Amino acid sequence: MALKNTEETYGQMSKSLHWIVMVLVLVLLLVGSLMGDIPFKPVKHLVYTLHKLTGLTVMFLMIFFVIWSAFNPKPSYPEKMKAWELWLAKTVRISLYVVIIAMPLVGWFFSTAAGYPPSLFGVAAFPAPFVPVSKSLAGIGHELHEIIAWIIVCLTVVHAAGAFTHRVIYRDNVLQRMMGLSD
Ligand code: HEM
Ligand code: HEM
Predict the structure, then answer these.
(1) Can you say whether the dihedral through the CA atoms of 115, 118, 124, 127 is positive or negative?
(2) Cα(84) to centroid of ligand 1, in Å?
(3) Domain that holds residue 77
(4) CA of 106 to the centre of ligand 2 (A)
(5) Domain for residue 66, yes or no?
């Protein structure tokens, strides 16, 4: 199977990046919302550390996904799609790129500002560059992290609804070509 996209379908790299990022983001959303309530301190600390490191991994994967997509053809949509559907699909897609990079960036900034930058189990710490330790900055960042989480949820619902509309109502191959089922 080809690594690069063609005019007809996504290549292996786009498919892998897409589904790996999707799973990681959904897990991070769920774990992020629940981890504050973990009662046992060492487990809580471990989960926070894993949340931060996985979040940073998502950031780098998504930056690579943007670059990869920019240098690859975009499979064209079925001709019957209306102008507003094309506009919505594109707007949601670009917004997803932006928020999935902004989310870990904000997380990285506010945990650094709070004095708890991501650390590799005490071996090495990775503070965000140029971010001072500041309680008020950390508070704003935390709020923003929560707001962006809801934006991601809304965008993903619209995006997935679009994908299922193609599958169930239009009965075209837009979902399958992202799943590796339409070569
Ligand atoms: C795509 C990546 C990420 C997603 C989807 C995500 C998602 C979330 C969510 C949903 C919460 C709960 C928000 C709340 O209700 O307070 C949360 C909390 C948190 N996130 Fe993330 N996060 C991501 C990346 C990061 C990164 C990279 C860091 C730090 C380097 C980070 C640090 C934190 C911290 C410290 C909290 C806990 C705040 C608290 O409990 O006081 N996150 N995250
Ligand atoms: C957090 C979750 C998700 C993120 C961040 C995400 C992100 C993206 C991005 C950035 C693209 C564009 C790829 C490109 O420019 O080449 C894309 C395409 C696509 N996604 Fe997602 N996605 C997510 C969840 C889902 C889900 C749940 C589904 C379906 C069940 C889905 C189905 C698709 C399909 C079918 C395409 C190709 C559409 C097209 O050809 O334009 N995605 N996604």
Answers:
(1) negative
(2) 33
(3) 12-179
(4) 22
(5) yes
